[in-house]
Amino acid sequence: MSFQRRLASGDFVVLAEMNTPKGVNVAELVANARKIKGRVDAVIIPDMDNGVMRMSALAGGALIHQQGMEAIIHLYCRDRNRMALQGDVLAAHLLGIRNLVVVPGEEMANGDHRDATVVNDLDELELLGAIRSLQNGVDMSGFSLNGNPEFMTGCTLGAFADEQALDAELAALEKKVAAGAGFVITPPVFDVERSAADLEKIAALKVPVIATVFLLKSVGIARYMSLNEPGAHISEEMIKRIRKAPNREMECQRIAGETIAQLKNLVQGVKIETLGWEHKLPTILGFAGL
Amino acid sequence: MITAERKPLDEIMESIDGCGRILLVGCNECVTVCAAGGRKEVALLASALQMASMKKGRTLDIRELTLERQCDPEYVEELTPHIDQVDAVVSMACGCGVQEVARRFKKTHVYPALNTKFMGASEGPGIWAERCQGCGDCLLGLTGGICPIARCAKRLMNGPCGGSTNGKCEISNDVDCAWHLIWERMKELGIEDRYEDVIAAKDWRTGRGGGPRKILREDLV
User: Fold this and answer.
1) Residues B100 and B8 in one domain
2) How many CB atoms lie within 10 A of CB A143?
3) Same domain, B18 and B113
4) Could you say which of B201, B202, B209 has the minimum Cβ distance to residue A108?
5) Over the stretch B118-176, which tens digit does the pLDDT of each residue have?
6) Quick one: B75 and B25 in the same domain?
7) What is residue A185's predicted lDDT score, i.e. its pLDDT?
8) Each residue of A121-146: pLDDT tens digit?
9) Which entry of A42, A155, A259, B75 is 20 to 30 Å from A130 by CA?
10) Confidence band (pLDDT; 50, 70, 90) for A229?
């Protein structure tokens, strides 16, 4: 059953995030994707994740589709104007991609091409509106299309450190849903018990909520995120658990798997983010009982 | 200078709809020079607004004031005695002036009467043309004093493109090809050999690529 149908039927969906290579060697991407074929509902391909120049998500999504898997690709406004974005949306449909996520673009200053110019011809709401319009057969200039693309389009919820910030994000989310977003991906959830109320608040907007499960790779990363991402709520107990484990890497994967299992009754799906450790996905899925 | 043009009267009227008393504020700098928002234009717009209001059976209480520089807090302070006595300020400055007034008077509506256009120069009476986009890393020394960022339609650093014909740009016969101008200027200066130099991909961090910009001169703070 397609990702879209599973969402509509209320089934729990599992998405695995996989980055395209910085280069043209896709062997690792294909190998990692094949290892989880049948165990996840779709592979989500970021575009220039964290502002790092890589093979475009469009190619990555097409490649995943060629492997007989469902692809979801990121779209954002920093690098492309409305012409390029609409062209890519049409191309995505042709290449077999049926799912999009409109995401915010990372600041150019945080990427690896800091001297590049930014485009930002559209914002996220306008891009969502443009995708909806293309699905209805009309481009942004009002011209009719010869064949309409079809997509399930989602959006993201920005990170929030407190109730006030969550409310601001929910107000923005409402607008995105009104503009055409059919599901939302949350920031990483580490402490499910503590995040439960927030997740319920998000779900109250009547849009399928997909929680991000982020693989902590080490004590150092856990500590860094705990200090620099106040909204992450990474507890001292969790850091201690990783530190004391005989196999810390395995413990991190176990924690991610347990988090997925805990989220099953709270949200409609998870997106597993491993940032370069996609080869660990089968183990994480195993710990999650998937 | 920063150039501007007045907005259509209907748009200005729409923005002050519901206001009975307005303070119409001009600026004595760039917008005076480009005849968009100086003392004279303030008086003209005041008359036009009054006539448009009267046509609708209303009268406006319009105060007119032209500041030396509307982008300068020191001069914006001169509005203080008037602010509580008006429903809104209509600014005839560039966007910098509008924002400075809005920043100073947080509880007062400030509406722009001008559309700020570009940084440019006068090419003759009544003609202003774009010259600079404030990229923050001037390359005029490499291009014979003619800016390809502001004056080439494609912003080419290594032009011209195939659309240059008889010194004109493909977008319009009224637009000079910047790279033709650069070539002619280099010939005049006897530095044609520099034309062959390839300019590297530009670092846009000094421009808007790096987000909103600020200058901090510690010796003046």
Assistant:
1) yes
2) 9
3) yes
4) B209
5) 999 999 999 999 999 999 999 999 999 999 999 999 999 999 999 999 999 999 999 99
6) yes
7) 98
8) 999 999 999 999 999 999 999 999 99
9) A42
10) confident
**Residue that terminates a domain, selected from B90, B117, B144:** B117
Residues of A in contact with B202 (CB under 8 A): 115, 117
With respect to residue B216, please indicate whether it lies within any of the assigned structural domains: no
Partners of residue A109 in chain B, C-beta under 8 Å = 205, 210-211
Is residue B62 domain-shared with residue B87, that is, in the same domain? yes
pLDDT for res A231: 85
Nearest CA in chain A to B205: A115
Whether B8 and chain A come into contact, CB under 8 Å, resolves to: no
Domains of chain A, start order: 3-216+267-276 (3.20.20.220)
Considering only CB atoms, which chain A residues are within 8 Å of B211?
A: 107, 109
Same domain as B112, residue B10? yes
The interface predicted TM-score of the complex, written ipTM, equals: 0.87
B94 and B38 assigned to the same domain: yes
| B102 is a domain residue | yes
Tell me, yes or no, if the pTM score tops 0.95: no
For residue A1, the model assigns a pLDDT of 73
Range of the domain at B139: 133-208
**Kind of pairing between the strands at B88-91 and B109-112:** parallel
Q: Is residue B148 part of a domain?
A: yes
Partner residue opposite A114 with nearest CB, options B201, B205, B207 = B205
Cβ-proximal residues to A212 (8 Å cutoff; 6+ apart), any chain: A185, A186, A187, A188, A189, A270, A271, A273
Q: Within this chain, do residues B141 and B204 fall inside the same structural domain, yes or no? A: yes
Mutate to test the interface with A, among B133, B156, B204 (most CBs of A within 10 A): B204
Is the CB of residue B193 less than 8 Å from the CB of residue B124? no
Min Cα–Cα distance to chain B from A135, Å: 32
Taking an 8 Å cut-off on Cβ atoms, the answer to whether A109 and B207 are in contact is no
Is the Cβ–Cβ distance between A23 and A272 less than 8 Å?
Answer: no
DSSP string across A116-167: -----SS-HHHHHHHHHHHHTTB-TTSPBPSS----EEEEE----SSHHHHH
Structural domain contains residue B33: yes
Contacts of A108 in chain B (CB under 8 A): 205, 209-210
Contact between B211 and A109 using a beta-carbon 8 Å cutoff: yes
**B182-221 residues touching A, CB cutoff 8 A:** 201-205, 207-211
The residue-averaged pLDDT of B29-46 equals 98
Among A17, A112, A115, smallest CA distance to A61 is for: A17
Are the C-beta atoms of A140 and A130 separated by less than 8 Å? yes
